[in-house]
Amino acid sequence: MIPSEFLKTLERERMVRRGDRVLVAVSGGSDSTALLALFAGAAADLGIDLHVAHLDHGWRGAAAARDAEFVRRLALSFRLPVTVGHVDPSVWTRRQDRRGPGRRQSSREARARVLRRRFLEATARAIGAQRIALGHTLDDQAETLLMRLLRGSGRRGLGGIHPVVNGRFIRPLLPLRRAALRAWLRRRRLRWREDATNRDRSLMRNRVRHRLLPLLEREFHPAATTTLARAAGLLREEEAWLERLAAESFAAASKGGRGATTLDLHLLQAMPLPLRRRVVRRAVAQARGHLRGIGLGHVDATLGLLARGGARGLDLPGGLRVARRNDRLEFLAGTDAPGRRAGPAPGETGAVCREALCPVPGAVSLPDLGLHLTARLARPGDRMPPPGPDRALLDADRVEGPLVVRPRRPGDRFVPQGGPGTRRLKSFLIDRKVPVDERGRIPLVLSGERIAWVVGHRIDDRFKITPATRRVLVLEKETR
Question: Residue 13: helix, strand or coil by DSSP?
Fold first, then answer.
């Protein structure tokens, strides 16, 4: 039942095509564990390639490290490469939200979503993935609808979670209940991790999940979750139709004018109010590049400029100026307006560092370092290029466990080949006159907990080839 519904959703929503590479986001919870298991079981028939991604948000300490290790082992059990990202914990202390505990939690969750999306998009670019799979379920859909309803969202927000976004993000589990997925995992004897933050009642989603939805199902309608999710789907379909109508109306009302986004006042006034609001939102989005910070009050205030004898201009968030001039409404964004900034928020640049698990044979990418690494096995008598800065030859039988690729960390030590003994990596790089700002961008290949290769510099003496070597592990880097 579960695998067939999964495959039907993939086909109905045209989520993947033969030859695609799919980046599967796995937190270690039941939903994402089921997502990976379902994809792994169907990949060969679908003709797709899989890569696993996991992000440690940097606020759960040892528990997060255990989650990351669980995902590494899960990916390894399916013989899949995995990239693990880590958010620098200082990201959460640099910009403290002073609006109270509840708002601080909400702000943290919102910023975590932004960082997670950046991590997934960067990893997908680095490995050449066409799709990014997320593990949202029918329960998530119902929770989202209730949360947005309580916040006063319109039809757009009440449409909930979309199965496909921008042709790239896909959610094949949306028609499935979380309880059914967990029962399926148990039958397959697959375990998952429980995130303690899912029990944190200071977060609105958790209160909806553990209090409101059970109350609705217990006292009002036993199928409340399914009904709410179905309602979100209907609203989403109607929203898509209204947006097509708004796009046509916006195109008809748009006028050229001095580099600003402009609307014909007469055409705008002739539209029904709901359509007028949508056209104004489109004008704001075109002028600013996005709609962040724009609510219904801003849209209605803009429409207030249509009244005769009223104000002739107003300022909206993000440095956007709206002015009524004769027969047109102008939307002009300042070139230095904060809303025009396309880059990451201050203090978040470089906030995510990554580590990747490299299968042998196989390949993996480390997006932050622009590195693509390949690994293959050879025999000592085989013809192969000599070792060098971009190539390492190791004794494969001395390599223990999966290969991990990551940036340098404080306290790293290794035994440089040909050197006198164990050295701090920092001292080694100083002696080689590597600039300070480049040291953090040098990839390391680890066998278990031991550094096997400081990429571009030296292998560890404990992994060197000897006359007794029977298999050679050939590692080659390609900088992107």
Answer: coil
CA separation for the pair 109, 33 (Å, rounded): 21
pLDDT bin (cut points 50, 70, 90) of residue 341 is: very low
Task: Give the CATH number of domain 354-479; options: 3.20.20.20, 3.50.40.10, 3.40.50.300, 2.115.10.20.
Answer: 3.50.40.10
| Euclidean distance between CA atoms 288 and 266, whole angstroms | 23
Number of Cβ within a 10 Å radius of residue 11: 11
Q: How far is CA 313 from the centre of its chain?
A: 39
Q: Quick: pLDDT tens for 78-106.
A: 999 999 988 877 666 655 444 444 444 55
Q: The CATH number of 2-233 is which of 3.40.190.10, 3.90.79.10, 3.40.50.620, 3.90.550.10?
A: 3.40.50.620
Cα separation, 206 vs 143, in Å, equals 9
Could you tell me how far CA 3 lies from the centroid of its own chain?
25
pLDDT > 70 in the chain, percent: 89
Question: What's the whole-number average pLDDT of the chain?
Answer: 86
Cis preceding linkage at 435, omega within 30: no
Cα atoms found within 13 Å of the Cα of residue 267, Cβ hemisphere only: 16
From the list 94, 114, 43, 116, the residue with the least C-alpha distance to 292 is: 114
Starting at the edge strand that comes first in sequence, how are the strands of the sheet with 49-56 ordered? Answer: 164-165, 169-170, 131-133, 21-25, 49-56, 82-87, 352-358, 403-406, 444-447, 450-454, 458-459
Q: Starting at the edge strand that comes first in sequence, how are the strands of the sheet with 320-325 ordered?
A: 254-255, 261-264, 328-333, 320-325, 313-316
pLDDT category at 37 given cuts 50, 70, 90 is very high
- pLDDT score for 97: 46
3-state helix, strand, coil in the chain (%, to 5): 45, 20, 35
Largest CA distance in the chain: 93
pLDDT at 398 over 50: yes
pTM here is 0.72
Share of the chain above pLDDT 90, in %: 50
Give the whole-angstrom CA distance, residue 388 versus residue 319. 53
Q: What tokens were used for 473?
A: 């592990």
Among 375, 361, 286, smallest CA distance to 322 is for 286
Element spanning 322, H or E: strand 320-325
What tens digit of pLDDT does each residue of 269-314 get? 999 999 999 999 999 988 888 888 788 888 888 888 887 666 688 8
Tokens found for residue 250: 């916006």
